[in-house]
Design a protein that fits this description.
The protein has 131 residues and is of the alpha+beta class. It has a domain of 89 residues: Pseudouridine synthase (2-Layer Sandwich), CATH 3.30.2350.10. It is built from 3 helices and 5 strands, in the order E-E-E-H-H-E-E-H. Strand 4 and strand 5 form a beta hairpin.
């Protein structure tokens, strides 16, 4: 399912729009306030504007912060996840970037594989990454 939302920055009054799609989900043995496990998801995110911290702020706004996000995330969840999976990084990566070539405007697509520790974490959670 594809969802989108808009968030207006209070000071600059600038629109910001982000679409996302859930690719996979998993339950991890981390206690939450009301449950014995915590659900986590792998998202494909499409920011249509380029506001500072846009993806992180939008996901926090809908109560689904990026794991490992010290600024917009949930500290206890980040610490528990890091202890369980041995990762202490922000789990956000740009794997594909599409833009117009600056010289002639042709569509340009750049692809970068996930950092090995991030890819290993995805495999441990049973997530197959898109090609």
């Amino acid at each position: 399912m594809k969802r989108c939302w808009s968030l207006r920055a209070i000071s600059a009054r600038q629109d910001a729009r982000t679409d996302y799609r859930r690719l996979a989900c998993a339950e991890v043995p981390i206690l939450s306030r009301h449950h014995d496990t915590t659900r986590v998801a792998l998202l494909e995110v499409f920011p249509h504007t380029g506001r500072q911290h846009q993806i992180r702020r939008h996901l926090k706004h809908i109560s689904h912060p990026v794991l490992g996000d010290a600024t917009y995330g949930k500290g206890p969840l980040n610490r528990a996840f890091a202890g369980l999976f041995g990762t202490d990084r922000l789990l956000l990566a740009c794997a594909d970037l599409q833009l117009a070539h600056p010289a002639d405007g042709r569509p340009l697509r750049l692809h970068a594989p996930l950092e090995p520790a991030f890819a290993t974490l995805c495999a441990r959670l049973g997530w197959r990454l898109p090609a």
